[in-house]
Amino acid sequence: MREKGLLIVLSGPSGVGKGTVRKEIFARPHTAFEYSISMTTRKPREGEVNGVDYFFKTREEFEGLIKQDKLLEYAEFVGNYYGTPVDYVRETLEAGKDVFLEIEVQGARQVREKFPEGLFIFLAPPSLSELQSRIVTRGTETAEVIQRRMTAAKEEIEMMDLYDYVVENDTVAAACDRIGAIVIAEHCRRERVSARYKKMLEEN
Amino acid sequence: MREKGLLIVLSGPSGVGKGTVRKEIFARPHTAFEYSISMTTRKPREGEVNGVDYFFKTREEFEGLIKQDKLLEYAEFVGNYYGTPVDYVRETLEAGKDVFLEIEVQGARQVREKFPEGLFIFLAPPSLSELQSRIVTRGTETAEVIQRRMTAAKEEIEMMDLYDYVVENDTVAAACDRIGAIVIAEHCRRERVSARYKKMLEEN
User: Fold this and answer.
1) Is A119 exposed, middle or buried (0-12, 13-18, 19+ CB in 10 A)?
2) Using the beta-carbon criterion (under 8 Å), do A160 and B200 form an inter-chain contact?
């Protein structure tokens, strides 16, 4: 009677600090997630190791995997492909381990379609909740600047609609604590626990 | 822009250790919940203080409150009423504080009707998940004993259906950690956070 793992997807606007939060999570001693290594067609930088930092592939190999539907999500940035191999994710989840992805928002959208039951966490800039006090307290901003900020904030808030949780990245440590709490809580969700108990009874 | 507090309801089968878990939660230095003190018609025991351990009321007063719909939930045990005053709960939630109730399952059912948005946590006996290994490893049990246990387990699992989360009381400390994580996670739920952000934008 083994419970399937959780697919944990951390995403958010570019520049919000997803990579820093992910590194801190995996630097913590009690983290029990498996990190899904991305695949890319870009050249390895000095010190980067195949299978550790990325799986490095040729453009032909990558496009072959796209055709075979072997990528959970992928995107092209500045002429290079980046993506998440789906087999590793499925096998690790089946083995009862939680898998952690840190990806861009477009990628998260693709993952949601394939794994609607995943746990989607949006990392939000603290600027969002600071916005109000900044607008109120600073009298130096022009109406145009304020308007631009409001529009940007609106776009970010709309982006959130895809997600289950929003974690503010006020400090890296606090954001990591919240993400850890969310994963613990999700493992306690009644649907999940009671399905496990029911299965146990049926098997006896 | 103040966020409403969460109503946290801890319940579970009698004898599971709800009171012990609740005491440990409130003994922890970082607990920021308000504990809702129950009301009762039973006589104070030695050392019990009105307004600390319980609000002690006469039978007439209690029945008056029932008629005025001033109780969030109530029940009668061995000739005495026990209940949760609703005004304190509403006012504390409105003030943005989380309120914690530790009540019997019948009470939890009444609260769910009045506060469907509450956070309902079922404290489960570890015997439930130990059941399988016990059945498999011990050859000494009669079929009748096993059957009785399975029936009891089924009833407890059905009880869970009302709840959002199930926390196993394997150790008091672990159960309290999980409850703490659940509350943190709930405060990060997207609906809750994005509603707050949206309200902030509208107010500017």
Assistant:
1) buried
2) no
CA-based end-to-end distance of chain A? 11
B36–chain A nearest CA distance, Å: 23
pLDDT per position as a tens digit, B131-166: 655 555 556 677 787 777 778 788 888 889 999 999
Tens digits of residue pLDDT in B84-134: 999 999 999 999 999 999 998 999 999 999 999 999 999 998 877 666 555
**CA–CA distance from B35 to each of A39, B30, B92, B145 (Å)?**
50, 14, 10, 40
- CATH architecture, range A36-96: 2-Layer Sandwich (3.30)
CATH superfamily of A1-33+98-204: P-loop containing nucleotide triphosphate hydrolases (3.40.50.300)
Residues of A in contact with B128 (CB under 8 A): 197
Strands, E assignment, chain A:
7-11, 34-35, 39-40, 55-56, 71-77, 80-85, 99-102, 119-124, 165-168
Determine the longest span between alpha carbons in chain B, in angstroms. Answer: 71
- What count of other Cβ atoms lies within 10 Å of the Cβ of residue B5? 19
Inter-chain touch B166–A194, beta carbons under 8 Å = yes
Q: How far is it, in rounded angstroms, from Cα B138 to Cα B87? A: 51
Which of the residues A194, A196, A203 would you substitute to probe the B interface, choosing the one with the greatest number of B C-beta atoms within 10 Å? A194
Q: Residue B14 annotated as binding?
A: yes
Q: Which residue of A165, A185, A194 is in closest CB contact with B190? A: A165
Domain ranges of chain A: 1-33+98-204, 36-96
Here the tokens at position A167 are 């974690």
For residue range B172-196, what is the model confidence (pLDDT) as tens digits?
999 999 999 999 999 999 999 988 8
The answer to whether A118 and A100 are in contact (CB under 8 A) is no
> Into which CATH architecture does domain B7-36+96-202 fall?
3-Layer(aba) Sandwich (3.40)
Which residue of chain A comes nearest to B151, CA vs CA?
A201
